[in-house]
Specification:
Layout: H1 3-9, H2 50-62, E1 67-71, H3 74-82, E2 90-94, H4 99-108, E3 115-119, H5 124-130, E4 135-141, H6 153-162, E5 166-170, H7 175-178, E6 188-192, E7 206-210, H8 213-226, H9 232-242, H10 245-264, E8 269-273, H11 283-289, E9 296-301, H12 305-314, E10 319-320, E11 330-332, H13 344-349, E12 356-360, H14 366-377
Parallel strand pairs: 2-3, 2-4, 4-5, 5-6, 10-11
Antiparallel strand pairs: 1-7, 6-7, 8-9, 9-12, 11-12
Helix pairs in contact: 1-2, 2-9, 12-14
Bound molecules: pyridoxal-5'-phosphate.
The site of pyridoxal-5'-phosphate has 16 residues, from helix 3 and helix 4.
């Protein structure tokens, strides 16, 4: 099946008990057993729930993977992956990273003796140099957050496998519509389904997909043993959202291209970060590794933090809020919001300055979005 068919049908056959076309919300914690060890595949809902199974199968299909696992949040999904490591292990991550991921590495995993090194996202030589005898995995985001740099997944996968390391890709920003890291050699792909996959800003969730059976079995063990699973209603909302993923992503991208071009020509804008602009340093890589450029646009305003505050107060259609990937347009100030937990000097050295704004371009009418930006910048 092609992508637009998979979002609607993969894992979502009519319900076997009633024929219900939509996957029902199995709001139950436990399942009747007919005899000792005799049941229909479900015993207890932390271990498994048919609504969750449908989402897990659907996202696995969208990422061209064998196995999917759903979690209560994107960070819970990340934590499950990090449970593959042991005390004393080391990981390498790109430095332009979601703030919560950095916090999880440093302030949670660090306490359990897992250490992390950070390398310039697009510099392959730095990845190789950072490998130590105790390195177990490489962790990437591409496009990165918030500067939308790209990492060559195929090249890093080759390097990882030469050294016996696992490659993990956080595919939240691209969505499976625009990029499939497993096809490029990654071992594990993860999403915060809170973002594009659910797409309606009304659920927190995460998923992990892999085709490596050994990795899957360990992750599945942790999903049940730790228990950070999503409830059936959240999973059902996500399944409802996922059905329009393809049409939403097309519109997000069309609007984002227009917004990026508009900002690029605006006198008050210092610099625009969007992989779809030919001037973007990774434009050629984006064309090769992605099927489109996505809906996120970042830009640096000319002026001071006070000017940024003025623009934010004047925007009407773009809402100042954390998160991304919903149907509505959002604007975020990474330095104080998503990346507020990163120490200032580290943050600024990575380009996340006080005058940087990140847009999650929604699917509203493009004229309203451009007019809103125009009046706020004026
Ligand atoms: C939001 C986000 C996460 C964390 O997901 P939650 O669902 O908020 O826990 C991880 N990675 C990226 C790139 C994100 O945008």
């Amino acid at each position: 099946m092609k992508f637009s068919t998979k979002v609607i049908h993969a894992g979502q056959e009519p319900d076997p008990t009633t024929g219900a076309v939509m996957t029902p919300i199995y709001q139950t914690s436990t399942y009747a057993q007919t005899g000792l060890g005799e049941h229909k595949g479900y015993e207890y809902a932390r271990t498994g729930n048919p609504t969750r199974t449908a989402l897990e199968a659907c996202v696995a299909a969208l990422e061209n993977g064998q196995y999917g696992l759903a979690f209560a949040s994107g960070l819970a999904a990340e934590h499950a992956i990090l449970n593959l490591l042991r005390a004393g292990d080391h990981l390498i991550a790109c430095d332009d990273l979601y703030g919560g991921t950095y916090r999880l590495f440093e302030r949670v995993m660090g306490r359990y003796g897992v250490s992390a090194s950070y390398v310039t996202a697009s510099n392959l030589v730095e990845y190789e140099k950072a490998i130590r005898p105790n390195t177990r995995l490489i962790w990437l985001e591409t496009p990165t957050n918030p500067l939308l740099n790209l990492v060559d997944i195929q090249a890093v996968a080759r390097l990882a496998h030469q050294h016996g390391l696992l490659l993990v890709v956080d595919n939240t920003f691209a969505s499976p519509y625009f990029q499939n890291p497993l096809d490029l050699g990654a071992d594990i792909v993860l999403h915060s389904t809170t973002k594009y996959i659910n797409g309606h800003s009304d659920v927190i969730g995460g998923v992990v997909v892999t085709s490596n059976q050994e990795v899957y079995e360990e992750l599945k063990f942790h999903q049940n043993a730790v228990g950070a699973v999503p409830g059936p209603f959240d999973v059902w909302l996500t399944l409802r959202g996922i059905k329009t993923l393809a049409v939403r992503m097309k519109q997000h991208e069309e609007n984002a291209i227009s917004v990026a071009r508009f900002l690029d020509e605006h006198a008050r804008v210092e610099r625009v970060y969007y992989p779809g602009l030919p001037s973007h340093p990774d434009h050629a890589l984006a064309k090769r590794q992605m099927r489109g450029f996505g809906g996120m646009v970042s830009f640096q305003l000319k002026g001071t933090r006070a000017d940024v505050d003025n623009v934010l107060r004047r925007l009407k259609v773009f809402t100042l809020a954390e998160s991304l990937g919903g149907v509505e347009s959002l604007v975020c100030h990474p330095a104080t919001m998503t990346h507020g937990s990163i120490p200032q000097e580290i943050r600024e050295a990575r380009g996340v300055v006080d005058t940087l704004l990140r847009l999650s371009v929604g699917i509203e009418d493009i004229h309203d979005l451009l007019f809103d930006l125009e009046q706020a910048l004026a």
